[in-house]
Amino acid sequence: MAYKKPVQKFTGKIREVTLGENLKLGGESVLPFYSFDGDTGHKPALGMEIWDVYPESWPATIVNELGDKARKPAEWAKYVEEKYSPDFICLRLVGANQDAGDKSPEECALVAKEVAEAVNLPLVIAGCDSNEKNGKIFTKVAEALPEKNIAFLSAVEGNYKEVGAAVGLAYGNIVVAESSVDLNLAKQLNILLMQLGVKPEKMLMNPGCSAVGYGFEYVVTTLDRIRLAALDQNDTTLQIPIIMPVSFETWKVKESVATEDDVPEWGNQEERGIAVEISTAVGVLAAGANAVILRHPRSLQVLREFINCLI
Amino acid sequence: MARFLTIGERIHVISPVIRKALQERDPEPIIARAREQIEAGAHYLDVNIGPAEKDGEELMPWVVKLLQSEFPNTPLCLDTANTKAIEAGLKVYDPKPGKAIINSADAGSRIGMLEVAAEYGAMVIGLCAKEGIPRDNEERIAYCTEILDKAIAVGLNPEDILFDPLFVVVKGMQEKQQEVLDAVRQISEMGLKTTGGLSNVSNGCPKEIRGLIEAVFCSMAIQCGLSSAIINPLNKLLMDVIKTAEVIKGWNLYCDSYLDL
């Protein structure tokens, strides 16, 4: 008897969400990269992170390469777009943190607008460390840039009403629902946003990220179970594309932060940081992420190659 | 694992309102009953037109078209012993929201419904009975196997059959309840899908406890593998129990608002 290749068929399908003008995420009806089982949907998207303040803590090669542009977010964004052409740019409003300038929501909106006007790539806006302040920042930024399919990182349990109402309902942008590696809360938060009236095609989710070695197995099994519920149980509340700010996590762990003087046996510091970033991104992509945010151009290059080799 | 399938039973000729509406071809009462069941969360709607010996071939297509034009996303379960009426209904049925279900075939005079299902690409409820209520599980399983053999012979996929072991009334046939549950378990263990009419179980009991009896029986049957049921979706207790059972079984991912969905 001829061998018949078994195929794992699912009833569910991840919804398509458009970032910016036409960067489509999701659409798959199989597990990540399982092209032998069916439709893998749109290719995972790779975004590059930029800051609204000078990135002092960043790897020396990046900071040196940027030079003065690192002080002007709009120029920085334009440079990244032209030189590295990622799929999207993520502007992180670090300067809104109390210890980094405590920028007001209005100031944040001005920077975001400048960046949005400088580039053609789709934009993702990430807030500061305070969820409460992010509610106010996102409201102002979304108001300044309405109906542009900009994704806002993130709406959490504590501020989802404010963020959902402003970003999703009033100004027609995309709300990212973020939970901290908690499967049940991830689903709950999606439902709460939908009950608020946010349309699922204006939603992305971040079910919680960490760097490899820091509870990462749990991140991966959470992603796995979310995807299986969406595909196998046809759970429509979880059929939302996933975006993960990988670089936010990987560049703060000790493997990336410790200098070569401190731990000479670990080797070159920047190489380590890149390795942690790449391993983490590959891990979450293989578990179901549809978009990742990266910091180092080398990571972008390797990840792009990785995705193109698989699909 | 697929979710539990609910078939709403409230469009039934036994109800005077529906009987009159069917006779007079009056859409409103039928649409109203359909709407309340869909809003309550029924996946399928059963449409029981009775034997309809006189005008079934005309009545079934009328009601199928009526419901599908009003509720294009809700699949239907066509319920009559009149084969010609079933065929006439299937001819006009749009399978886009899901295959139609024929209610029902059995191992006796209605075994021909399996061929009808195969011919029209429909699903079918397979009553594990021949004449009246099966005596014991040996009979039930024998009839189940007969239906299965026949289905395979006529080219019907076993996945498209919902085997009904025939739920029986608790008031009067109390000693048979465990046996029925065991039949659900045995059929499920054969990898087959199952269903049953929950109102059979509570028939004749006081109205205020019928919902409770149905809900408890349903959750016990789900534990035995029951994959669908013909129910009154307006019984909120039952619907909540089904949703909770799905969570306990791991068929649906828990979240605090799972009852709202």
From TrEMBL, chain A:
Pfam families: CdhD. Gene3D superfamilies: Dihydropteroate synthase-like. InterPro entries: Ac-CoA_synth_d_su_TIM-brl, ACDS_complex_subunit, Dihydropteroate_synth-like_sf. It comes from the Bacteria. Residues 18-259 form the CO dehydrogenase/acetyl-CoA synthase delta subunit TIM barrel domain. This is Corrinoid/iron-sulfur protein small subunit. It comes from Fervidicola ferrireducens. The gene is acsD.
UniProtKB/TrEMBL annotation, chain B:
One of its GO terms (cellular component) is cytosol. InterPro entries: Dihydropteroate_synth-like_sf, Met_Synthase/Corrinoid, Pterin-binding_dom. It comes from the Bacteria. SUPFAM superfamilies: Dihydropteroate synthetase-like (SSF51717). The keyword Membrane does not apply. One of its GO terms (molecular function) is methionine synthase activity. Its EC number is 2.1.1.258. GO terms for biological process: homocysteine metabolic process; methylation; tetrahydrofolate metabolic process. Keywords: Cobalamin, Cobalt, Metal-binding, Methyltransferase, Transferase. Belongs to the vitamin-B12 dependent methionine synthase family. This is 5-methyltetrahydrofolate:corrinoid/iron-sulfur protein co-methyltransferase. It comes from Fervidicola ferrireducens. The gene is acsE_1.
